[in-house]
């Protein structure tokens, strides 16, 4: 059964901190929750459904339900990396549609920056219980190394250049200059990106996302409650989720789970790429934006490089404004998970609450998309399409 127009986002909050050595992860979750509920005009007493992922203390909903003093009828602790919050939004919409809960709270928080986490450059510790470990461990893979391989493969197959990858960062930095809370606000040039230190060939430092502390939260409700709240109404019209396996090593390194989740979301929403006015695209690395643009159908496979180089991602200039908060490349990547902030900026755009310099005119349909865990060795993926009512 479709969830098209069955659930609404009525509260959205991005924690303002980017460095929080004085706050616990529980505190960041709670402050984010209270911020989103205040935005919606609701309180903790109104919440009867709670949704979180593995970043929550204890790895599931129990500790935060206790900490927040919630009285819930429905919980979901699905852990699928950075896209968990998009998938949780989908699950919350299903729960609301089925009457399992009426006010759903989704939270994210973490402090990798203040804890000095070497997220992308340390060999991945997958643990001996995972079946892929015996195959991966001898190569000591790092996240940056894996994404570097994806970028190199795209270059080999389609002639993509470092300058085209850099155009993604230039667009993100152009938007971030207007976000007073962005970690990196300085505009950059193509030359700045390609001359920054090499991290994992062909990816330079400025091709990589920031590491930040912080968090975010969303509040979702039924249509009836949304219509009683005096806030702009944003409803979910299309969703998709999948697990893109590595197919025993015979995977296509130029294809992401967006090829599946995009098709699911567009079919459910009954819209096409031509209807999307704004896109939040997970940008842990610049190559990931190109891959998803192609898999979602905004470009033919292999053509995203020229597309971004023409400035199409820049608000006010291009045909597909993206990540107008500066995205993970410049603004925020709390807990090394970008799905929540992608949804929050999409909600801002649909409400007309983005910064005036990057607000998309007549933004009535927006898309948020992103992977979870590590593309290239099997990953989760989700795409969400939202509409201003």
UniProtKB/TrEMBL annotation:
InterPro entries from the UniProt entry: Thiolase (IPR002155), Thiolase-like (IPR016039), Thiolase_C_2 (IPR055140)
Pfam families in UniProt: Thiolase_C_1 (PF22691)
Signal peptide, first to last residue: none
CDD domains linked to this entry: SCP-x_thiolase
GO molecular function: acetyl-CoA C-acyltransferase activity
Domain of life: Bacteria
Residues annotated as domain Thiolase C-terminal: 252-388
Alphabetical list of NCBIfam families matching this protein: PRK08142.1
PANTHER family: ACETYL-COA C-ACETYLTRANSFERASE, NON-SPECIFIC LIPID-TRANSFER PROTEIN-LIKE 2
Stated name of the protein: Thiolase domain-containing protein
Organism whose genome encodes this protein: Orrella marina
């Amino acid at each position: 059964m479709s969830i098209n127009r069955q659930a609404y986002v009525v509260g959205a909050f991005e924690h303002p901190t980017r460095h929080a050595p004085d706050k616990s992860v529980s505190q960041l979750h709670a402050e984010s929750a209270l911020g989103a509920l205040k935005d919606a005009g609701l309180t903790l007493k109104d919440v009867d459904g709670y949704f979180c992922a593995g970043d929550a203390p204890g790895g599931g909903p129990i500790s935060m339900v206790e900490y927040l003093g919630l009285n819930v009828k429905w919980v979901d602790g699905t852990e699928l990396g950075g896209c968990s919050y998009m998938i949780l939004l989908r699950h919350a919409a299903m729960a609301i549609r089925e009457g399992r809960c009426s006010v759903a709270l989704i939270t994210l928080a973490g402090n990798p920056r203040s804890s000095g986490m070497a997220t992308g450059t340390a060999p991945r510790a997958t643990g001996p219980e995972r079946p892929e470990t015996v195959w991966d461990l001898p190569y000591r893979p790092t996240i940056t190394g894996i994404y570097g391989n994806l970028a190199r493969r795209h270059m080999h197959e389609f002639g993509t250049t470092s300058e085209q990858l850099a155009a993604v960062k230039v667009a993100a930095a152009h938007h971030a200059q207007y976000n007073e809370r962005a970690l990196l606000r300085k505009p950059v040039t193509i030359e700045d990106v390609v001359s920054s230190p090499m991290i994992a060939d062909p990816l330079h430092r400025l091709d990589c996302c920031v590491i930040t502390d912080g968090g975010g939260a969303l509040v979702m409700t039924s249509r009836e409650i949304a219509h009683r709240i005096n806030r702009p109404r944003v409803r979910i019209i299309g969703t998709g989720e999948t697990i893109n396996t590595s197919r025993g090593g015979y995977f296509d390194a130029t294809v992401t789970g967006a090829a599946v989740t995009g098709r699911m979301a567009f079919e459910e929403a009954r819209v096409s790429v031509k209807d999307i006015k704004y896109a939040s695209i997970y940008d842990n690395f610049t190559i990931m934006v190109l891959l998803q643009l192609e898999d979602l159908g905004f470009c033919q496979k292999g053509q995203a490089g020229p597309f971004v180089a023409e400035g199409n991602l820049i608000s006010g200039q291009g045909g597909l404004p993206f990540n107008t908060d500066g995205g993970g490349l410049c603004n925020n990547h709390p807990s090394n998970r970008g799905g929540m902030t992608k949804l929050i900026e999409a909600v801002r755009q649909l409400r007309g609450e983005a910064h005036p310099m990057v607000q998309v005119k007549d933004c009535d349909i927006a898309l948020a998309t992103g992977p979870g865990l590590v593309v290239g060795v099997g990953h989760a993926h989700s795409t969400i399409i939202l509409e201003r009512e």
